[in-house]
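FORM 7B - TANDEM STRUCTURE REPORT

SECTION 1: FIRST PROTEIN
SEQUENCE AND TOKENS:
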Amino acid sequence: MKDPLVAFLRHLASEQDASPHTLRSYRADLLEFVQHASHGERGEWLAAVDTRTVRAFLVRLHERGLDAVTIARKLAAVRSWFRFLVRRGVLERNVAREVRGPRTPKKLVSFLPVDEAAVLMDARPAGGPERPRDAAVLELLYASGLRVSELAGLDLDDVDRARQTVRVLGKGRKERIVPYGGRAASALAAHLASRGDDRGPLFANRRGGRLTVRSIHSIVRRRALACGITRRVSPHTLRHTFATHLLDAGADLRMIQELLGHSRLSTTQRYTHVGTDQLMRAYDAAHPRARAK
């Protein structure tokens, strides 16, 4: 293996079908570790890496003021790389697995209460030819819980207007079918009436090119500010709101997992909240001594 790092990145791209963003992140994190562990020298430095090397790398990251989440991500990249090298026979053991990572705070991604979500959806977008498109973007994000990259990647052929579903290519190039409701259907119909039924991206910019992830972020942020919502609202906020509102209304967690395209149920559990009101209703209904006589 001439270049272990290049071989690993090629493995991620070809066999794991990692996205360009993921590949860039892995490459940057691992080049940082290589620089630390090899001291800029060429040669068989990998064989000399031990747990002290990895711990020293984490200490260095901490001294630079990086937060625990970023440090944990970089450690995870090193662990994945070393696991690959063990399987290929380059290393005897994965020393990075023996190093404990930093404790990361369990951050809860914000979501919108039902009334704020309604305000966001019902507000009229800014005028101009993009108005129907922007309204459809907001409605479909909230109605389907799609990742922003998934929404940006939709083509007109992916939409089944009769069944009100979209065919989505998610992480790991896994395909799934996601339904959307009547409000989103109406918004899409208005958008397509102004866009035309030609093939191509479902959401396009003024030049006809595919709407970018950054542009979708801007659409969501502008609408939230125009509605007077002071908290930070992003496409991911709407994805989280979608899951939370389904859960609060009694939807099964595994159904939500399928809709969100999560491979693990534990990931879905981190994305969802149980509101206090719902918790109290469940307690009052279930506990034999919840109500006073």
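SECTION 2: SECOND PROTEIN
SEQUENCE AND TOKENS:
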Amino acid sequence: MYMAEKTSYEFEAVPQEVDFTLRMTVPALVGAVLDTAGVDARRKGFGIDELNKENVSWVLSRMAIEIDERPRQYASYRIETWVNEFNRMLTTRNFTLHDAEGRTFGRAVTQWCVIDLEARRAVDLTELAARCADKIVDAPSPAEKPRKLAAIAPTCCREHRGVYSDIDFNRHVNTLRYIDMMFDMLPYDRYVADRPLRLDVHFLHECGYGQLLGVGCEERESATLFEISCEGTAAVRASLVWK
């Protein structure tokens, strides 16, 4: 019987992806993970280009990423990915990140839905799951799945109006722009120390061009919590835990 296998992709930490510590930023690492998801899905026949033929598209619903250390500028690294689960509404795609010596320095678990581009609603994945049955890898997720996140009581808030550079191919605000907005709320000293972290993100509602976003941040003893609202409706919640 045919068994699908994990797939690996090679990367390099280029200068535009590092900060003043000369290590990759967390948003850049998240970007590499999401790029890997797109490339791998397309390579295996269920990428965005194929789904768009049916007027549907992949949308990230939840994500969790654990980073033990961030690669230095020009360092080579590898991302291994696999899908291990399909249900009626979500599919789970996993990742492990490895340095040039093969050591694991990060893990990620992402959950995706498919939306109808006209109705802007999630669709049933039963048929797609059947078509992709031979792409499922019999391997567990490398980390705990994304956690449920509650509303926060923000102690710091900013506003942002959705602009052209925020919008992606699905005509809503790009995942990385949300993460940039969150990290821009952190104090300077958080970026200097290269501490292990876990970031959980839950997407609740679409935000679009020209809409007013409110970015809220709440500092707790063990975590920094975020909530981004769109015209008063909660759109994204996130938890950043420094270990």
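SECTION 3: OBSERVATIONS ON SECOND PROTEIN
The two ends are 42 Å apart (CA to CA).
The CA atoms of residues 60 and 230 lie 17 Å apart.

SECTION 4: SIGNATURE
Preparer initials: ____
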